[in-house]
Write a structure and sequence with these properties.
With 274 residues, the chain is of the alpha/beta class. It has two domains: 144 residues, Rossmann fold, CATH 3.40.50; 101 residues, no CATH class. Helices cover 43% and strands 8% of the residues. The chain contains 14 helices and four strands. It has a four-stranded parallel sheet. The longest helix has 15 residues. It is globular and about 50 Å long. The model has no long low-confidence stretch (mean pLDDT 91).
Length: 274
């Protein structure tokens, strides 16, 4: 029997950016009980613009079977400070999946991504126009109007932002996206810990079957034959150079402070902590 209306999300992949969320989204969307939206990143709950919840639901497909469910994956949701409260007001029963990558590698990957993006005229134009509407998202100011910074120069700039500057410059957030502990603590203010599943990016890369079985169990979905899914590596970027040791050392010290207690908070050992 066909059921009218839109499927609403029952879970979200919150992030982190550059941690494998696109691959995980593609893997999960292949489950027969899942209906994926046309777009992966909907950016409804992290937008500086006022949006109508009806417009949000338009992103999701019409119901075809009563037991099907849907989801979205917007990595910026983990980082943006006001998003957790907005999602809680929307649906306090949602489940969440958070993929965490070594924050040093994640930051370098993000810097490389933006370095490649600003070479595309259409994206440069988007950054310029977006900053006019969202003044705190200053990708145009720092990455387009001025010479693109070296990785070392940028991480020093971002690490030394004052508390007020961090509020005024919400983007770019290459370093701050790796402040996992405070971001997760913010979500724990509004949701129970049992609503979250945490995944180490290295697990996703090296043991996809194990991770997906955990995901489907967490979502109360029946196990499926994973051999029937396309579990190939997705969206891998190539870098022209490797991270320099000085930057790596600086970030290692910085993140050891910012993420102290993370493993205890999420009750999970991460492969990249020492």
């Amino acid at each position: 029997m066909t059921i009218l209306g839109k499927v609403k999300p029952s879970f979200m992949i919150l992030g982190a950016q550059k941690s494998g969320t696109t691959a995980l989204h593609d893997y999960i969307a292949q489950h027969p009980k899942i209906i994926s939206p046309q777009k992966k990143e909907l950016h409804f709950f992290d937008s500086c613009k006022t949006k109508n919840i009806k417009d949000y639901h338009l992103n999701f497909p019409y119901k075809k079977f009563s037991l099907k469910t849907s989801f979205e994956s917007t990595p910026r949701y983990l980082y943006y400070p006001e998003t957790a409260k907005k999602i809680k007001d929307y649906n306090s029963k949602l489940k969440f999946i958070i993929v965490l990558r070594d924050p040093i590698k994640r930051a370098y990957s993000a810097w490389n991504m933006y370095k490649q993006m600003i070479e595309q005229p259409s994206l440069k134009t988007f950054f310029i126009e977006n900053e006019k509407q969202c003044p705190k998202e200053k990708l145009s100011t720092y990455f387009v109007k001025n010479e693109f910074p070296s990785f070392y120069d940028w991480i020093n700039f971002e690490i030394n932002l004052s508390e007020q500057e961090q509020k005024d410059i919400i983007e770019p957030s290459i370093v701050r996206r790796g402040y996992y502990k405070e971001q997760i603590e913010n979500y724990f203010k509004y949701f129970n810990k049992n609503q979250f599943l945490f995944i180490d990016t290295s697990e996703l890369l090296n043991n996809r079957n194990k991770v997906l079985n955990e995901v489907f169990n967490f979502l109360d979905l029946n196990p499926i034959d994973l051999n029937q899914l396309d579990l190939s590596e997705k969206h891998k970027r190539e870098y022209s150079e490797t991270i320099d040791e000085i930057s790596k050392s600086l970030l290692k010290k910085h993140y050891s402070i910012k993420n102290k207690g993370l493993e205890h908070l999420i009750n999970k050992k991460m492969s990249w902590t020492s």
